[in-house]
Write the structure tokens for this entry.
Amino acid sequence: MKKITIENNKGLTLLEMIISVAIMSIVIVTVTSFMVTGTKMFGASNNEIQLQQEVQLALSNVENRIIDAKRGIRCDDDGTQVILTVFNDKTSTEPKEYIVWNRKDKKIYYASSTSDVTLTTFPTNEVLASNVEKFEVKLKEGTLGTTITPDPSATAQPTESVVKSNPKVEIAIEVQEKGRTHSSQKIVTFRNNITVAANEDTIYTETKNGLDSKAENVKITPQDVYVVPGESYQFNARVTGTGYPSQMVTWSVKEAGVTVNNSGLVTVDASIAAGGVVEVTAVAPENSDGVVPSGTARLHISKIERITVTTEATKIYAGSMLKVNANVAGAELNDEMKKVTFSIKEEEARSWASVYSSSGVIGLNAEARGKTFTIVATSTHNPAISGELTVTVEDTALSDLGSDAVQVNRNSSTELVSNVVGENLAASELRLEWSIADDGGLGDRVSIGAYSGVLNVSKDINYENEYQLKVAVAISADRLSNPETKYITVTIPKVSIHFVNGDGGAEIQKNGTVILPYEVIGLDGAAADITAATNPSIRNSIIYVTNDGIRLSIGNEVKSNKISVIATLRNTNSSDSIEVTVK
């Protein structure tokens, strides 16, 4: 036979391997180059965006500091620093605002000062921008757009100032960071008529809104404020209208002894007569049409005359909470002006009487029994006014705790009751404490709830014996100065069973059923321990025990006229019988 051999030499040659590696290398290099280039482009783009954001933020910071200039603005440049000065008020005692670009550290600073700031003594309070390569300020002359160039001298002042009805300033900022540079500029239109290129002597002294905006309403918040003489309050004013109306207002009051500063802080002199209302006015700058909007608020100068402290409690007890009320009387009073603080006047009383809450709840412990102390309510806004309430805590006396003899059954939970008789007893003092003084030898087969008075008796107690327990009931020592203890005798009788109305017998119809009620003494839930039978024994009859009684059912074939039903308690000699007549 001819042998046929089939060879299978599948695999890669060395040449194929080299070509595959070369192709993979080209792909990897291409992908890696693409990823590196993309990462660099993303980083560059991200840096550019951050740089643009920094420039815009710097422009916004400068704009926000100057746009509400109220009187004038000037710019100085000594070649080392550029200072932009903002005048906001007529007097030199009011602070001026300064924005400075320091060419050396390339930062823009902001400060506010009542004293003059020179180009060499500028306080670097707040940094508005960093990495600033260029900061140019061009003050514009109204609609003509003429630029006022800053004087290069550190001490030079302009010889003439121009009151602008539509003043503008052009700001250019260039920021350089990480080898990249970005610049932007912004024209800021001031909201008020101001002096451009102003100095201390030539700032604009009138009050008018710019032509691009119009004030229509001034709202002062809050509208009603209550203070007492000697107090101050800060009002706020909001000017609304078309465009961007100036927020500058002039404050005034027309009441001797009441003053208001240019920021709206009203101060009432301590010597002023209280009990009236003062009108506070804020006036906005005049509009171009001559209209001057204004707003008013009411300052109520409260007069606190007296404080009365009362309580609705007719009797006050130790170990309880006492609620008192403070009635503040006077003129121009709101809820805030009626606030008081409560305290205990006598130092020795603070160990057993304390202010539990700011609403006038006073806590009294057991030591307060029979003692007298004073509660003081003092005005929060006028501590010179206060009221007092003197109270006496009842001295309770227990005359009788009561006692009794009771009977309880096995397999039961019985609530014991003691009638407390006494004088001046608060509800909190009626907490009785129960205990078993003598368990009659039953041990843990009897127990009692310390504060509920529920006596629990086990079923597993000899049915043939009677037991007596001694239960103690008392009011705890921290409730009474002379605690009392009384005792209740508890009898657990021996177990016995009796038919209810057994002497009268019972009747049953043929083919019928009768229920024979029974009573068990000394044991609750006794049905499971009762056996029942008939005499004579009856065929076709059923007899069984329930909690309601013994049920007997008979048929028609019963020959007897009388049937005796006998009930017996297991583990006892106790039994009872009843005669049933068959009809």
